[in-house]
């Protein structure tokens, strides 16, 4: 099976996803830091609409089953692994309730015939939401509550022989250790050199790198960032400049449309906003080309 995804925006050919099921239905909001509006049954309906949109572009979905293992956050398949051009990398989660998830990805990659390049080991921690391909040989990684220096060093050692430079950038604490704040919470690449950002929370050196590499940065409006708990910014490119976002944030949408993006929306008031993860988080790109 073809694999490899060292771009955030190249056409999404294959993706790993987990349809939420019994685990989400039985989840207690307080155990998972889910906010007001969480409704497992409605979240599942909204996920189905989202998955249809992804599939409608011809993207092949590798399904990871919700077997009732109680891992409610496992629908956010972006986080437990990466897929480099040289094989999958199994990560190690910073959120204690998510520690079992990389093993689910390991099983899926084995079944799909995708080799494993390596695995982040304790005391290292890296979550996929902290990893952003600036270009095919530069991986930016947010150092914060979910990802630590030991994890970044392991990732750098794994990827250096393949010509990839891994750069760590400090994230703020945001809303505290229980809340979800990844590097991808403050940037969504939209096209090869175009990204939607929440400028006030971008690590300065990362912002400088993006400018040096010729990126145009669209600055998402603060009121919609606050109203959506940051989910207005979580935008998934299916092909460069053709993106999916959570409905209800017209200024953010118009900003992307003014930069010539095609924007499609889906309703996610039960799925994404209370569960702290958007369309990028619900997808683990396995092959982008
Ligand atoms: N990449 C992402 O931003 N993933 C969102 C994960 C949300 C999940 N509730 C978590 O706290 O890990």
UniProtKB/TrEMBL annotation:
Listed EC numbers: 3.5.3.6
UniProt pathway annotation: Amino-acid degradation; L-arginine degradation via ADI pathway; carbamoyl phosphate from L-arginine: step 1/2
Organism for this UniProt entry: Hoeflea ulvae
Enzyme class: hydrolase
Transmembrane segments: none
Catalytic reactions on record: L-arginine + H2O = L-citrulline + NH4(+)
Pfam families for the chain: ADI
Name listed for the protein in its UniProt record: arginine deiminase
Domain of life: Bacteria
């Amino acid at each position: 099976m073809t694999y490899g995804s060292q771009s955030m925006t190249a056409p999404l050919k294959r993706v790993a996803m987990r349809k939420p099921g019994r685990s989400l239905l039985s989840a207690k909001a307080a155990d998972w830091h889910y906010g007001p509006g969480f409704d497992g049954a409605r979240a599942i309906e909204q996920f189905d609409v989202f998955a249809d949109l992804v599939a409608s572009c011809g993207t092949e979905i590798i399904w990871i089953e919700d077997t009732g293992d109680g891992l409610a956050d496992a629908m956010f398949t972006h986080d437990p692994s990466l897929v480099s051009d040289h094989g999958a990398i199994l990560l190690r989660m910073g959120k204690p309730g998510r520690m079992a998830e990389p093993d689910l990805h390991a099983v899926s990659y084995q079944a799909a015939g995708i080799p494993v390049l390596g695995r982040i080991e304790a005391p290292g921690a890296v979550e996929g939401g902290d990893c952003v391909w600036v270009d095919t040989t530069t991986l930016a990684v947010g150092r914060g509550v979910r990802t630590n220096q030991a994890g970044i060093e392991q990732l750098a050692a794994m990827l250096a022989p393949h010509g990839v430079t891994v750069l760590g950038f400090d994230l703020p604490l945001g809303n505290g250790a229980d809340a979800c704040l990844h590097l991808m919470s403050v940037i969504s690449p939209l096209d090869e050199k175009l990204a939607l950002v929440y400028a006030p929370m971008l690590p300065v050196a990362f912002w400088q790198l993006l400018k040096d590499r010729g990126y145009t940065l669209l600055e998402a409006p603060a009121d919609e960032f606050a109203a959506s708990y940051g989910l207005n910014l979580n935008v998934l490119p299916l092909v460069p400049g053709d993106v999916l976002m959570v409905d209800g944030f017209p200024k953010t949408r118009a900003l992307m449309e003014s930069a010539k993006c095609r924007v499609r929306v889906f309703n996610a008031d039960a799925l994404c906003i209370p569960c702290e993860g958007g369309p990028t988080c619900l997808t683990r790109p396995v092959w982008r080309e």
